[in-house]
């Protein structure tokens, strides 16, 4: 009997139970923080509190219900001698690419202005931006960013990718490392971030970065909130240096009521929904990771603590 300890959205337990049922031998899922949960062989978690694993003496590994592991990195009580696995789910990459494209095209085609005109029965054309060759930069071209970059290229955009290490993506110009960040940013019309949060990526979108983009550029953040310097972003929007921002992630979530992003006319606030975990599409991967951990083998997509994701 495999014992799985669960922490996260409790209403998702039943979904995981049924999606894993056809993929694993006998198993049970218990709340990680219960007495039964303390006996867990593996943990399936999202944003567990500090000390969540303190009583788990049999634990062979931890599997995340999402791709970001920044909160685990910050928690010194998470055991580092057993595998920590993040989800790399093509369905989530699809969802994030749809969200990024939706916001990019809404901006590029003046969706907000035309919706306001519609409400006022105002029949009037605005100058149309170029349909070919606008510059889009994807910050983070890993499993998700590569999908996004390819899709923007297919829409006729001129696409750049920013990565930590060299890589090749057909039709995408790659810029590697912080030394090339300024060249990456140079005159971009749209920036999409799907970076993991690390010390290097914290505050990467700041006044200096915004100043290198094309005037009126648009920021789309699907990575993590602290990658944007909020004050710099607000200043650049207010001065007209930037044209707008679509944000799915924030330094503090839920976004506090009094935060100026909520009411800023150039900011679209999304409540961290760009790619929600899908227990069905992720089930193969989670079941494989559990099986490998139970067999004492190395699971795929193991987090590298030194790298930070
Ligand atoms: C969501 O933000 C995730 O990291 O999966």
Which characteristics define this entry?
309 residues, Rossmann fold, single chain, 9 helices, binds glyoxylic acid, alpha/beta, five-stranded parallel beta sheet, 12 strands, seven-stranded parallel beta sheet
What does this structure look like?
With 309 residues, this protein is α/β, with parallel strands linked by helices. The protein has 2 domains: 2-89 and 277-294, NAD(P)-binding Rossmann-like Domain (Rossmann fold), CATH 3.40.50.720; 92-269, Rossmann fold. Helices cover 28% and strands 18% of the residues. The chain is built from 9 helices and 12 strands. The chain has helices at residues 13-21, 70-74, 90-108, 111-119, 143-154, 181-185, 207-212, 230-238, 283-294; strands at residues 2-7, 27-31, 42-45, 61-64, 84-85, 135-139, 158-163, 172-176, 190-193, 217-221, 242-247, 267-269. The strands form 2 sheets. Strands 8-7-6-9-10-11-12 form a 7-stranded parallel beta sheet. The protein has a 5-stranded parallel beta sheet with strand order 2-1-3-4-5, covered by helices on one side. Helix 3 (90-108) crosses helix 5. It is elongated. It starts with a strand and ends in a 15-residue tail after the last helix. It binds glyoxylic acid (GLV). Residues 66-68 line the site of glyoxylic acid.
């Amino acid at each position: 009997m495999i014992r799985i300890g669960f922490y996260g959205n409790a209403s998702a337990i039943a979904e995981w139970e049924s999606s894993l049922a056809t993929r694993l031998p006998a198993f049970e899922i218990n709340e990680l923080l219960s007495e039964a949960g303390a006996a867990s062989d593996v943990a399936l978690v999202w944003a567990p509190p500090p000390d969540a694993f303190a009583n788990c003496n049999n634990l062979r590994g931890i599997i995340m219900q999402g791709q970001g592991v920044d909160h685990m990195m910050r928690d010194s009580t998470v055991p580092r001698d057993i595998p920590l696995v993040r989800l790399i789910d093509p369905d989530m990459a699809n969802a994030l690419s749809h969200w990024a494209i939706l916001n990019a095209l809404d901006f590029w085609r003046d969706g907000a202005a035309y919706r306001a005109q519609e409400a006022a029965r105002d029949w009037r054309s605005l100058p149309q931006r170029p349909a070919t060759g606008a510059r889009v930069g994807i910050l983070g071209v890993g499993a998700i960013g590569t999908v996004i970059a390819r899709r923007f290229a297919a829409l006729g955009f001129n696409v750049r990718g920013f990565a930590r290490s060299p890589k090749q993506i057909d039709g995408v110009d790659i810029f590697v490392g912080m030394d090339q960040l300024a060249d990456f940013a140079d005159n971009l019309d749209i920036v999409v971030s799907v970076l993991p949060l690390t010390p290097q990526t914290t505050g990467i979108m700041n006044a200096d970065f915004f100043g290198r983009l094309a005037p009126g550029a648009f920021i789309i953040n699907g990575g993590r909130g602290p990658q944007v310097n909020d004050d710099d972003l607000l200043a650049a929007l207010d001065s007209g240096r930037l044209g707008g921002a679509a944000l799915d992630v924030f330094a503090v979530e839920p976004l506090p009521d009094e935060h100026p992003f909520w009411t800023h006319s150039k900011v679209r606030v999304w409540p961290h929904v760009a790619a929600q975990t899908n227990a069905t599409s992720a089930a193969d991967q989670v079941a494989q990771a559990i099986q490998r951990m139970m067999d004492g083998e190395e699971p795929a997509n193991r987090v590298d603590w030194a790298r930070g994701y």
